């Protein structure tokens, strides 16, 4: 979304748990997410797994962590808003979000659904969207995400057990 489009719509208020430094302590955090654009869904988060990657993030063990940081990239929630271009979700559906929430969308890797190799790949919990808003993870009450980076969770899934499948659980025995 362009900066102008962002400014035309109010951002989404969110509440979560953030690390302010590498101590490992999380504390309550009020922040804003970008407005729901035409390609986005807004998800009311129901479950979010704890991955060892979150612990690395909080303790500044992988990247230089951008504090404050809201961890969480094994996210399951209910869709509460859809942009007008959204085709994969309807309000009320259950969506899952993993560790990627952005990429350029036009490079060879993105065109082959290999966004994880895109040079502009954006982690769910670290970095900035194109409009300048920070990416904050799933230890929070909601998330605004482009539908491209969310998966539809089929009816009948046990949702607490589904959350880890968005990252580590998929490779665990
Ligand atoms: Zn993970
Ligand atoms: Zn790309």
From TrEMBL:
Per the UniProt record, one Pfam family is ADH_N
What GO MF terms are annotated? Answer: oxidoreductase activity, acting on the CH-OH group of donors, NAD or NADP as acceptor; zinc ion binding
Q: Which Gene3D superfamilies match?
A: Medium-chain alcohol dehydrogenases, catalytic domain (3.90.180.10)
According to the lineage, what is the superkingdom? Eukaryota
Question: A GO BP term, please?
Answer: lignin biosynthetic process
> Which cofactor does the UniProt annotation name?
Zn(2+)
Q: Which UniProt keyword terms apply here?
A: Metal-binding, Oxidoreductase, Zinc
Q: Which family does it belong to?
A: Belongs to the zinc-containing alcohol dehydrogenase family.
PANTHER family the UniProt entry points to: ALDEHYDE REDUCTASE
This one is known as Alcohol dehydrogenase-like N-terminal domain-containing protein
| Species per Swiss-Prot/TrEMBL record | Prunus dulcis
């Amino acid at each position: 979304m362009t900066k102008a489009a962002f400014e035309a719509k109010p951002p989404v208020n969110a509440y979560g748990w953030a690390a302010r430094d590498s101590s490992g302590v999380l504390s309550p955090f009020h922040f804003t997410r970008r407005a729901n654009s035409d390609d986005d869904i807004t998800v009311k988060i129901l479950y979010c797994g704890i991955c060892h990657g979150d612990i690395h993030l909080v303790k500044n063990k992988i990247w230089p962590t951008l504090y404050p940081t809201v961890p969480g990239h094994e996210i399951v929630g209910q869709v509460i808003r859809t942009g007008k271009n959204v085709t994969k979700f309807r309000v009320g559906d259950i969506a899952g979000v993993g560790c990627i929430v952005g990429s350029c969308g036009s490079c060879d890797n993105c065109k082959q659904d290999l966004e994880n190799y895109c040079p502009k790949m954006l982690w769910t919990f670290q970095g900035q969207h194109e409009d300048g808003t920070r990416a904050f993870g799933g230890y929070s009450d909601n998330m605004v995400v482009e539908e491209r980076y969310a998966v539809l969770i089929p009816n009948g899934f046990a949702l607490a057990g589904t959350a880890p499948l968005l990252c580590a659980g998929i490779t665990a025995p």
